[in-house]
UniProtKB/TrEMBL annotation, chain A:
InterPro entries: Bact_solute-bd_prot1, Chitin_NgcE, TAT_signal. Gene3D superfamilies: Periplasmic binding protein-like II. Belongs to the bacterial solute-binding protein 1 family. It comes from Asanoa iriomotensis. This is Carbohydrate ABC transporter, N-acetylglucosamine/diacetylchitobiose-binding protein.
Automatic annotation (TrEMBL), chain B:
Signal peptide: none annotated. This is Sugar ABC transporter permease. Keywords: Cell membrane, Membrane, Transmembrane, Transmembrane helix, Transport. The keyword Endoplasmic reticulum does not apply. Its main location: membrane. The chain crosses the membrane at residues 7-29, 70-93, 113-134, 162-182, 216-239, 270-292. It is a multi-pass membrane protein. Residues 66-291 form the ABC transmembrane type-1 domain. PROSITE patterns: ABC_TM1. It comes from Asanoa iriomotensis.
């Protein structure tokens, strides 16, 4: 507050600061050295990992005694499936190999520096909110090409290639411009979720026709329940997923393909506009609650468990996620989206399904073959079955969960998937173009909570898609 | 003091300066470097000149963030300092004078603890707490009460028109405690005889405050203003936790530069994020320099 009385000393605050700043300047030349390590460099030679002898039991040519470093995202699925199922399978196939297992909830925090330094692990479960950007990993050639894996003979039937033992579309989902780089392992089905018990008690069914759907929402509202909800704070993508699936149903699967490929005017076609108009009309009719824009997904899902919300769009992880708060006899059930009218291009029962939970083999890992072999073991029937038994979710391995008694929700979504047959759509832009994805979230909230109309919604997203297309810094993908 | 002064200073400064150089100066310089590149975080950065800055000046979100900083920069220090000064005055000299000594109002020791309490909590905890305070349904602290009273809920963080003000409210709530303590310390260093003399001359509390407390606290106020101004350039944690979409929503209505930096890093645009960081660096430095210059005054020395 006051100057030191002994002002003959020039050890004043000002001089001290000045000295410190000067010292800081002196240090600057040394920082050239520091900066070299944080950004890594491309000067690390791409040493090809030493392989082993190829054989029938070892089609990928894994070095039998090489160490395999596995990093698992310890999130909703935990890490038990890796330590108790997949790693023992690998050890059984290669008894001399050692596995270095670790798990984290912050994948990018732990691994991004290791990638930048050219020292990544051999197998990574890249998932969670802190996942590394797949598009960036691919664009910077950090991920191994998984073609040898998909073309290798499968564990259970050497006459069949691995790619023929998984659900159709699995390889495609993890491909970038036709090159497979990511194994998406968990089969995921999207739809509208409700309490089977509540709907049975009230005599409600989810119809396929839009007008009948609106009538249902009206009935639900009269019963004092909020008919439709999603979490605006952190999960608006649940809702753009609905709008886009609906658009595909109206205008055919190409609507989504064009959006993913950033085709000119893809967001402004009638199908997207009609879907946006249909869903955007709910708030004005009082079928949604304004407060949900400020809530996170678990809060809205809890309200559904309390029968305060009737219909909720989500994927089939919902049942597992809510296991702790779901009352007994709630009976999660999934319905497919209603269509719009008689001129819909895709039939009732059309749904979005995809494979989720990404696994990758870093290209600069020391044991690339081992990483792919680990995937091959995951994709065996035993590997898939073991995963399903531990985490109660179906995998992309065909027939691996046969006869497994799923809880009612997943059972209903698996049934819907089976009856959808070939009428399955998917979107990819959300994983390819993060900026466009963010814009879609924002625009969806603006639309669904009544601040913009369907035209403005399409306009906004088209503008962002065009900007993405023009941006040279963004690596483009096609499907 | 003169004898062996420099070894003494160097001895004390070596370690902190080294730490500062490695963990502050070096990253800052690196950010400058990166701001001229396109870097996704894996392969080596690619030099692209001033492209990032050109993008920045065309970026709506950047201008929105600047606007929000301007609002926060004016409102946060003003409101916080006003409230803190008022409280500090009441706690220290607002009460009756006992045997000629000015004291705080009744229970001031207790209030001091109460005001300081938010300062003890980590920002993340405060943000999570306020999620509940602001939750726009019957389980929210404020809206729950409003709805019980039959009033309409207020959509604090949801309504684009009041979202930023809601976040400002949290910032003020959190900051007040610290500045009450800071100002209290400042006030207690003002000699009581000045107050006594003024009181004997018949000065009212109002006069005491504006004629004695405020001028003698000028240095402290200045520090507070700089601190709060710099705080207004941050706000990352609160916006990140509280805003819709956790990225300055709804639709950019609460975004700040730090959030934009984080968002761009998450989308692997480290070069562009660094350019935003450089902009933030210059804004903060300019602000601090300007404030110190503008508010320079004669120091009062009691001796």
């Amino acid at each position: 507050m006051s100057q030191l009385p002994d002002s003959t000393s020039d050890l004043s605050r000002r001089n001290l600061l000045r000295g410190a700043a000067a010292a800081g300047l002196l240090v600057i030349p040394a920082t050239g050295l520091l900066s070299a390590c944080a950004t890594g460099g491309d000067d690390t030679p791409d040493t090809p990992a030493a392989g082993g002898e190829k054989s029938d039991k070892n089609p990928l040519g894994v070095k039998e005694d090489a160490q395999l470093e596995v990093v698992i995202f310890n999130g909703g699925y935990g890490e038990k499936y890796a330590t108790d199922v997949h790693e023992p399978l690998y050890k059984k196939a290669f008894p001399n190999a050692t596995i270095k297992h670790s798990s984290t909830q912050e994948i990018s925090t732990i691994l991004q520096p290791r990638f930048a330094a050219g020292d990544p692990p051999d197998f990574v479960n890249n998932s969670g909110t802190k996942l590394m950007d797949f598009g960036a990993l691919v664009a910077d050639q950090q991920l191994a090409d998984l073609t040898p894996l998909w073309d290798a003979p499968s564990v259970d039937d050497p006459a069949k290639k691995v790619r023929d033992t998984v659900v159709a579309g699995t390889v495609e989902v993890g491909s970038f411009n036709g090159k497979p780089h990511v194994l998406y392992y968990v089969s995921t089905v999207f739809g509208l979720w409700y309490s089977g018990k509540l709907f049975k008690d009230k005599g409600w069914t989810v119809p396929d026709n839009w007008d009948a759907f609106l009538t249902l929402l009206g009935d639900i509202k009269k019963a004092g329940i909020i008919p439709y909800a999603y979490a605006g704070k952190n999960a608006p993508y649940y809702q753009y997923n609905v709008i886009l699936t609906h658009a595909a149903k109206i205008g055919g699967a190409d609507v989504l393909k064009n959006i993913d490929n950033l085709e000119d005017g893809a967001w402004k076609v009638d199908a997207v506009k009609q879907a946006a108009e249909a869903w955007g009309s709910l708030i004005g009719k009082g079928f949604m609650d304004k407060s949900h824009e400020g809530l996170i997904h678990t809060e809205v899902q809890l309200q559904q468990n309390q029968n305060k919300v009737a219909l909720y769009p989500s994927g089939d992880w919902l049942e597992g996620e809510q296991a702790k708060t779901t009352p007994a006899g709630f009976e999660y059930t999934m319905a497919t989206l209603p269509g719009l009218g008689s001129s819909d291009k895709m039939p009732a029962g059309t749904l979005r399904a995809t494979a989720g939970e990404g696994y990758v083999v870093p290209a600069k890992g020391k044991n690339v073959q081992g990483g792919m072999e680990y995937m091959r073991q995951m994709l065996s029937k035993e590997g898939g079955r073991g995963f399903t038994e531990v985490v109660k979710a179906p995998t992309v391995v065909v027939g691996a969960s046969e006869g497994y008694a799923f809880p009612p929700g997943v059972a209903s979504s698996q049934k819907a998937l089976a009856s959808a047959g070939a009428n399955v759509v998917n979107i990819f832009f959300d994983g390819w173009y993060k900026d466009l994805e963010t814009e879609a979230r924002v625009a969806t909230n603006e639309l669904m909570f009544g601040r913009i109309n369907a035209d403005q919604f399409c306009e906004r997203l088209q503008k962002k898609a065009d900007a993405t297309k023009k941006d040279d810094a963004v690596t483009k993908f096609k499907r | 003091m003169r004898h062996g002064k420099y070894p003494f200073i160097i001895g004390f400064l070596a370690a902190p300066v080294a730490l500062y150089a490695i963990f502050v100066v070096a990253p800052v310089i690196q950010a400058f470097q990166l701001s001229f590149t396109q870097w996704r975080g894996f392969a080596a950065p690619k030099w692209i000149g001033v492209d990032n800055y050109r993008t920045m000046f065309e970026d709506d979100k950047f201008w929105k963030a600047l606007q929000h900083h301007a609002i926060l920069l004016i409102c946060l220090p003003l409101i916080t300092i006003a409230i803190s000064l008022f409280f500090a005055f009441l706690l220290n000299v607002g009460g009756r004078s006992r045997a000629g000594v000015m004291t705080g109002i009744w229970g001031s020791k207790f209030y001091r603890v109460v005001f300081f309490l938010p300062q003890v909590l980590a920002v993340a905890i405060i943000a999570v707490l306020f999620q509940t305070v602001y939750r726009p349904n019957e389980t929210g602290l404020i809206d729950g009460v409003l709805m019980k009273l039959g009033l309409d809920p207020i959509f604090f963080l949801v309504d684009p028109n009041i979202a930023l003000w809601s976040i400002l409210g949290v910032l003020v709530w959190q900051a007040v405690g610290f500045y009450v303590v800071l100002f209290s310390a400042g006030m207690s260093s003002i000699p009581t005889d000045i107050y006594e003399a003024a009181a004997i001359d018949g000065a009212t509390k109002f006069t005491l405050f504006f004629r004695i407390t405020l001028p003698l606290l000028w240095n402290t106020l200045q520090v507070a203003w700089v601190y709060l101004g710099i705080a207004a350039f941050d706000c990352f944690a609160l916006v990140n936790v509280l805003s819709i979409g956790n990225d300055g929503g709804p639709d950019g209505a609460t975004t700040v530069l730090a959030v934009e930096i984080y968002r761009n890093m998450q989308t692997s645009k480290y070069g562009y994020a660094s350019a935003l960081g450089v902009a933030l660096f210059f804004l903060t430095i300019t602000f601090a320099a300007l404030t110190l210059r503008v508010s320079r005054r004669e120091n009062v020395e009691y001796s």
